[in-house]
Amino acid sequence: MSMVGPRRWADxxxxxxxxxxxxxxxxxxxxxxxxMTGKPNSPHDGEPPISxxxxxxxxxxxxxxxxxxxERIKLGTNVYNIGxxxxxxxxxxxxxxxxxxxxxxxxxxxxSWLRQEWEVMELPFDTRGRxxxxxxxxxxxxxxxxxxxxxxxxxxxxxxxxxxKPVQKPxxxxxxxxxxxAAMRRAALLGDGWIPMEQTPHTLPKNLERxxxxxxxAGRTGPFQVTMSARIASxxxxxxxEDAGATRLLIGLDPRDRDAVARFGEEVIARL
Length: 272
What we know:
This protein is α/β, with parallel strands linked by helices and 272 residues long. Helix content is 38%, strand content 15%. The mean pLDDT is 95.
């Protein structure tokens, strides 16, 4: 969706829903520093996959726009930099989207790889993992408890009420992005699913086994979503990912090409 301007958001969402897609996802960065280093899963090395000239939109406005013109399609962030905001702000945006969409929000989050983005916001990059973990816990409490106070390492606030609660109970699915050991631990212990970024049908089973083992050791049960990007040309391709453990596939179609979106719906989605 990053290549689509605001005037096309509604059209793209309607086309995706008509073609039978289960969900639509938008990327997120708060700000694009001119000088950037690193890349996903390698914050200290590599050529950045984006530049300062990359358009960046508020994901909640994007998804609310799409929610207003659709009825069924789910609305996800891939991924939202939760550590850059106070968790009260994240919880407010998330519960608002879940209410206006009648329970279709999905929160995909990441710990971030872009050090300079954190520096612009005057936040410490090297403690981002602990900050993200704490933020997740606060968001969950805000979305489920009648009265919340918090006194943590990064966030502190007096007792507050927080309404409305989300339509989805106990909260919209919270999926953790990333392939590092820290990301897999976070997905296992704090998330409702995982958004791996560098897995294949060959590598996914072993890493999923590690995640499920951590979940079992922590006494965590219930559904666990595995959302991953894939190149799909046929039903057989879908089955390969499904057999490896994926529960949702993100397809890299050009959303501006409505014919390609409809064709994928007819040739793949309708045959599943």
